[in-house]
Amino acid sequence: MAAQLIELGLDDLAEVVECLLIGADTARHEEIAARRRALADGIGDALDSLPAPTAAKGGPQ
Predict the structure, then answer these.
(1) Per-residue pLDDT tens over the stretch 25-46
(2) What's the number of CA atoms in the CB half-sphere (13 Å) around residue 47?
(3) Are the beta carbons of 38 and 44 closer than 8 angstroms?
(4) Distance, CA of 19 to CA of 55 (rounded, Å)
(5) What is the H or E stretch that residue 11 is in?
(6) How far apart are CA 2 and CA 39, in angstroms?
């Protein structure tokens, strides 16, 4: 399965991950909680695989 998240910044994507984890913590069914955690992990892993931003590209200076 693939999801295309376009026109979102890194902060937006981090918020999506946080919302999925909060949703997992409040889910009534363990299957739904596990799915939300898996989605959050997948997005987090994808973010971790990106190269670190540089000062020239808007990263920390």
Answers:
(1) 999 999 999 999 999 999 999 8
(2) 17
(3) no
(4) 29
(5) helix 10-26
(6) 10
pLDDT (0 to 100) of residue 4: 76
Angle CA 44–46–50, to nearest 5: 115
Q: Are 15 and 23 in contact (CB under 8 A)?
A: no
Distance, in Å, from the CA atom of 8 to the CA atom of 31, rounded to the nearest integer, reads: 28
pLDDT band at residue 53 using 50, 70 and 90 as cut-offs: confident
Residues 6+ apart with CB under 8 A from 16: 5, 8, 43
How many other CB atoms are found less than 10 A from the CB of residue 9? Answer: 9
